[in-house]
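Good day; I would like, with your permission, to put a structural problem before you. What I wish to show you is a protein chain and, alongside it, a tokenised description of its three-dimensional fold. Thank you for your consideration; the sequence and its tokens are set out here:
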Amino acid sequence: MKKLISKLVLQEDLNFLLTNRVPRQLLTRFMGWFSQIESPWLARCSIAVWQLFTDLDLSEARETKFRSLHACFTRQLREGARPLDMDPLLLVSPSDGIVGACGAIAGTQLIQAKGFPYTLLDLLGKQALVDYYRDGSYVTLRLTSSMYHRFHAPHDCDVQRVTYISGDTWNVNPIALQRVAKLFCKNERALIETTLSGGHRVTLVPVAAILVASIRLHFLDVLLHLRYRGPNEISCAAHFVKGEEMGWFQHGSTIIVFAPKGFLLYDGIAEGVQVRMGQGLLCLPEA
């Protein structure tokens, strides 16, 4: 047993070393360039290597032949591959993902991983948002590299503002989350502030990571990435119906969903559960 524990610890140490003790931003920029090289042959070879290390499943993809690795990362799915729960009293998952820490926000404090707290102000940086989500609810969704990387509106909503916060590109896997304090608060991220049809405000926070630092939002004419030098706060006026696509990550990362006091976790939502876009995530107060 001691040997097994030692082996697992060694594997975690090696994983942490390989993904976080490297020139993260340089590697991320290289991956951004490499992934967009248009060569079907190179794409096939890269995807074959990728499949050796992950459970990449392309059976649901709208297309199965890709001109670049980027096209595979950001692939669309076949019609009907993600059934949408249309219950108006449910906020659905905006993406595929594995549920990380979730539940009630204790005042303004929430959990990154066991023993690693952070505050709303650390992540959001705006006192008005901190006050609004005080004692509210949150769900952290971790997207692995092989998952579907597009994210969608969790409810009928309007987006009035996006705030871009530049930062680092730490890996957001469980090992790093248990070792790097306030990791989400250090990484590049965007605050997508939405207002639901019933008036409640829900904020989605896509957090970038190593190899991922690029967030595409369809309703903005800029790509949010490490070299972006535009205004941090971007006003907009975009309307979405529940399930409509909002944007994508270049690779895979994390989305944190924030809802105000009164929202509750939907049945079955708990740490470690894998969810798909369109499944129930949070219940509106009216429920």
About this structure: The first helix runs from residue 2 to 20.
